[in-house]
Structures are given as structure tokens and as C-alpha cells.
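ok so for the tutorial part 2 we go from a plain amino acid sequence to predicted C-alpha cells. step 1 is just haveing the sequence, like this:
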Amino acid sequence: MRANRALGSSLVDHNLITIEALDAANERLLELTADEKNDSVSLLQILVYEKQSLTEEQLLAYQVEEMGLGMVDLSSYDQPYDLRKKLDEAICAATWTVPFDVEEGTHFLATAYYLSPAVRSFWERQLETPIIWFATSMENVGDFLRKLTLERENEGSGLRKN
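step 2 — the prediction. this is what the C-alpha cells look like for a chain of 162 residues:
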């Protein structure tokens, strides 16, 4: 919830949505989170897909053009095994962020929630190393985490994916 609140405020501060759009999305978020089965719902999903107050393309373009972030597509990225093994899927899903590489003590993170200061500070505290941030879509993060979950389930049952 903290990541969503911080993201919403930041989207308003950066003039990407109106306060009215944020209020409507927050109301909907509260409705959806009242149902315990909807733990994967996010403010950004509501703003983009349900309320259509913002497009993800607008958000990504803003982050690249105004904030100087690079973009990354994780769909064909071969993440180092040691990093993948340590990932907490629940934390990645809650923050819409995936550490996808580490080089010489610097972590590379792909996120759909860069504009949430709560997400950035969480990962900075968690990793305690320099971070290079990359923007990516919610779909890209979701697909990456689904693949990771499937891979772990296959490893747990003794199956190997070739």
C-alpha cells in the first residue's frame, strides 16, 4: 500500500494524472484490496487499464525523457543464477521491481514503479549497493515473475525445462 500511495502522489506531482483521477483510483484500490484474493492489484493497473487516466507508454516515455532512465525488456534476459535464486517473488511483485543483474557490486533493477519513492528507498535499503534503475512495463515484470515461479515449481518437482 505504501508503494501505491507514494506512486500516486508522485504521479500527481509530475503532472501525469489529476488529483481527481488519483482519488478515484485510490477508492477502487481500497475496494479491490478488501477482497483478500486481490493481493496483486496495484494503483498503476487501475489508473492504466481500468480508469485509463494514463497510458503506460506515457509513463515510460516520461521516465526515459524526463528522468533519464533506460528501458529494459526482461523477456529474453538471462538473469544470473545466483541472483535469481535469491529473489523473493512476493517482494518483487509488491514493488513491481526485479533485480536482473549485478556487476562489480552494482545492482541493475527493472521497475514499473520507479516514480514511487517508497519502492526506490526499499530497494536501496534492501541491497545496500549502488543501483542502476531501468524502466519496464507491468506486463514485463509480471511475465518475468510468472516464468520464475514456473521455473521454481519445475525445479521443486524435479523437472528440468530444456
